[in-house]
Hints:
- Chain A: It comes from Actinocatenispora rupis.
- Chain A: Pfam families: MnhB.
- Chain A: Keywords: Cell membrane, Membrane, Transmembrane, Transmembrane helix.
- Chain A: InterPro entries: CPA3_antiporter_subunitB (IPR050622), MnhB (IPR007182).
- The structure holds two protein chains of two kinds.
- Chain A is mostly helical.
- Chain A has helices spanning 3-26, 37-48, 54-62, 64-84, 104-126, 135-146, 148-151, 155-161, 164-189, 211-238; strands at residues 91-93, 240-242.
- Chain A has a two-stranded antiparallel sheet with strand order 1-2.
- In chain A, helix 5 (104-126) runs antiparallel to helix 6.
- The mean pLDDT of chain A is 84.
- Chain B has one domain (4-54, 64-109): Helix Hairpins (Orthogonal Bundle).
- Chain B is 63% helix and 0% strand.
- Chain B has helices at 4-21, 26-47, 71-102.
- In chain B, helix 1 packs antiparallel against helix 2 (26-47) and helix 2 packs antiparallel against helix 3 (71-102).
- The longest helix of chain B is centred in the C-terminal third of the chain and has 32 residues, at 71-102.
- The mean pLDDT of chain B is 87.
- Classes of the chains: A mainly alpha, B mainly alpha.
- Chains A and B meet through helix 1, helix 2, helix 3, helix 4 and helix 10 of A and helix 1 and helix 3 of B.
Amino acid sequence: MTRTVRLVVFGLGGAALAVLFALALLRMPPFGTADHPYRDLAVAAAAAHQTGNAVSSVNFDVRGLDTLGEEIILLGSVVGAATLLRPARDESERREPRGGRVLDSTALLCWVLLAVTTLIGIDVVVHGHLTPGGGFQGGVVLATGLHLLYLAGSYPALRRLRPLSWYQWGEGVGAAGFAAIGVAGTVAGGAYLANVLPLGTLGHIASAGTVPLLSLAVGVAVTCGTVVLLAQFLTQELRITRRE
Amino acid sequence: MHGYAYVVAGWLVLVGALGIVRSRHLVHAIVSLSVVQSGTYVFLLAVGYQWNVPAPIFTSRSAVTRAVVDPVVQAMTLTDIVVSAMVTALLLALAVQIEKTHGTVDPDRLRALRG
Lengths: 244, 115
């Protein structure tokens, strides 16, 4: 199929989709009204379980099983990317990458920001049930923050501070922890991922039952998973050379 | 102005798909796919929007009220973002391998299957 034919086919399909979408929009409920039946149920569920952040309540309490599925998608895709990026038969892995040069001011800024970002990441994970955030968001902040070490020009330091096997274990432990809290819910509450812990008072750090624990498990899994994932791409770029 | 966000969502999906169709570089195609996925985020958030109400976050001082934007679609958007980030990672890994085995990342030049 040539590019022109492909564009024509896309033009026809895209135009048809646009027309159908516009027709569907005309029959949609009006934008921005107070009519949100799912919202009413979700807010009531969050209030019943003393969860300040209704989004976390939906993710870790109401539809915790979906989040377990999401967690497994994450695990699967990290394993998949790691498998795809293994050194091939005609490639070898160097011990150390070529050195580069980084300005001292850049390096200093990165080390300062590493501390700040790590604190923010932990804060976002731990307060996921109270304020905007949670395990997924905080995990990504923590994992990318760690790579400020790479920007600081210190790939050896990144490798020392990032013993990859720990993170591989951490990812599994996070995912298994999530599943184990679910099993504990089955044993104590009669349903998988049932919120069986004392609920506490809304707005306190110890509230919302299992929500902060599940958020923490996700935080560990996402941090470790993202670190492992980014490590595969970095290794690919910096340390793998094709044998001549 | 009403429903303007829906139009933006539809536009993002179509323009991202056009990017994939016209792509001359696999990384460009993968980024175009992310644009398509952004359209779904805008759509979901638009579905749950309500004028002049705050985010669905309650504190011990504020009373729990139903007058907030819909947390259900926000949670779905979060799931959507996580899954699309993972899809992007896998596709980028595939693009790296395709570059190695085929020596090109132009989708038009990738004709033959090769082990």
